[in-house]
Design a protein that fits this description.
The protein folds into two domains: 264 residues, Aldehyde Dehydrogenase, Chain A, domain 1, CATH 3.40.605.10; 191 residues, Aldehyde Dehydrogenase, Chain A, domain 2, CATH 3.40.309. The protein contains 16 helices and 22 strands. The radius of gyration is 22 Å and the shape is globular. A seven-stranded mixed β-sheet has the order 15-16-17-14-13-19-20, sandwiched between helices. It starts with a strand and ends with a strand. The model has no long low-confidence stretch (mean pLDDT 97). Helix 4 runs antiparallel to helix 7. With 471 residues, the chain is α/β, with parallel strands linked by helices.
Length: 471
């Protein structure tokens, strides 16, 4: 199977070329097919079309924008089974997860953006002047493979709501789900040329987008290193750059909570999507006098998790996305072992029931120093570090002792206590006594090396707007 996601001015460009990217099934390492990569000429063509459609996009009424988003929503619902199977096939997430959270998070962004638009005013009368909020223009959206529908739809929703024309560059590892999404958008009433897509290896195509003078803004989700490179290239044309990057989030377990409930929940939060989430709470901070009990509960719970075939509805963890990720995670696990951290579960190699595929043993280290490599660097796999603290101020210092600041989690008895702790944590969001952020249209983005932009809802919409003062 050969697939092209080069979509320009309302049509797929299926032209053959020798620049192809092999698509592998991470579950068994078999070849699915190949992606026909977009050429530089096609990248330039997509940008040219998007530039020409800036005014058309900007002049869409608020009602038209809402209608287009609803049509995308309806298309997602209609093809949710296709999308779930595509995501499982291309990146290995369990079918139970791709059929639920992977789809629902994308749907939530569409619903929340429509609700935001319903009451949003693009003009405001202030004392002695009028404020007008206008679309920034043609935007380049660069999205990752780990939550492909979630990250792509939050950007697309906000850009359409703001009235921007779009050039999308999805990850080459999410080619199957991207093709379905493009087909869904193609069937909407969005004028042709307002949305374009190019696809190929990120290191080849990303710089062409980031440095192009006609693109007014880049919205990128991915690694911190790639984000730095994008910002450097974009600086030459003074374009706006919104970055959602890496994380090393802490989960503070407060004294007195029910550990039998809190510890399994914390492990599940870390290991969802095989640990391939930028906001995953990979540092578990527990009171020092509970460590022995915490280790027993962790070991007991980890033995209930099933790693294996992602198409099996009983599976909790599938493979990681590719061999590069597999080798990287193994290297971090080896580092943890060599550093003398206490290995509660997992370790090097694949689970005994997984002979092929990029499967990782769910790994938990205890007695971890926060200065260690496994506690400081983003591993992006199912590896959890348990760190002890003396008192809550010590816990906050540990949580903040990181170059990252994307997310944080608190499990506590008293919500007011949790709120006070959250105020002290240097991160873009804090989740208190919940499994996840759910469907809330709360802003998402990081402090420090985790990025500089915000997505979702009102804050996501305003990332794509320029403010004009009429005096």
């Amino acid at each position: 199977m050969e697939i092209s996601n080069t979509y320009i001015n309302g049509g797929f460009e299926e032209d053959q070329n020798n620049n192809k990217f092999s698509l592998l099934n991470p579950t068994d390492e078999s070849t699915i097919g190949s992606l026909i990569c977009s050429s530089k000429k096609q990248v330039d063509s997509a940008i040219k079309v998007g530039l020409l459609m800036e005014n058309i996009s900007a002049n869409l009424t608020k009602e038209e924008r809402m209608s287009i988003l609803q049509e995308i929503h309806d298309g997602i619902i209609l093809r949710k089974e296709d999308l779930a199977h595509a995501i499982t096939l291309e990146m290995g997430a369990p079918i139970n997860l791709t059929s639920s959270s992977h789809i629902q998070m994308g749907i939530d962004h569409l619903i929340n953006t429509i609700k935001t638009l319903e009451t949003y005013s693009f003009e405001e009368d202030c004392n002695e002047y009028k404020l007008i909020k206008v679309p920034i223009g043609l935007v380049g959206l660069i999205t990752p493979w780990n939550w492909p529908l979630n990250q792509t739809l939050t950007k697309i929703s906000s850009a359409i709501a703001a009235g921007c024309s779009i050039v999308l560059k999805p990850s080459e590892y999410s080619s199957l789900s991207s093709r379905i999404l493009i087909e869904i958008i193609d069937k909407t009433s969005l004028p042709k040329g307002c949305f374009n897509c190019i696809n190929g290896v990120g290191s080849d195509i990303g710089p062409l987008i980031s440095s192009h003078p006609d693109i007014k803004m880049i919205s990128f989700t991915g690694s911190t290193l790639a984000g730095i490179n994008i910002q450097e290239l974009a600086a030459k044309t003074i374009k706006r750059v919104s970055l959602e990057l890496g994380g090393k989030s802490a989960h503070i377990i407060c004294k007195g909570v029910d550990l039998e409930e809190a510890i399994p929940n914390a492990i599940d939060q870390c290991f969802i999507n095989s640990g391939q989430s930028c906001s995953a709470p990979t540092r578990l901070l527990v009171p020092i006098d509970t460590i022995e009990n915490v280790e027993k509960i962790a070991n007991k719970h980890i033995n209930t998790l099933i790693t294996g075939d992602p198409m099996d509805t009983n599976t909790n963890l599938g493979p990681v996305v590719n061999v590069k990720q597999f080798i990287s995670i193994q290297t971090y696990i080896e580092s943890g072992i060599n550093s003398g951290h206490k290995l509660i579960s997992g370790g090097l190699g694949k689970p005994i029931n997984c002979n092929s595929g990029y499967f990782i043993k769910p790994t938990i280290f205890s007695e971890v120093s926060n200065e260690s490599l496994v506690a400081q660097e983003e591993i992006f796999g199912p590896v959890l570090s348990i760190i002890t603290y003396d008192d809550i101020n010590h816990a906050v210092r540990i949580a903040n002792d990181s170059i990252y600041g994307l997310s944080s989690y608190i499990t506590c008895l008293d919500e007011e206590e949790g709120l006070e702790i959250a105020r002290k944590i240097k991160a873009g969001q804090t989740i208190i006594n919940k499994k996840s952020r759910g469907s809330a249209p709360a802003p998402f983005g990081g402090f420090k090396m985790s990025g500089n932009g915000r997505e979702h809802g009102l804050f996501g919409l305003e990332e794509y707007l320029e403010i004009k003062a009429i005096i």
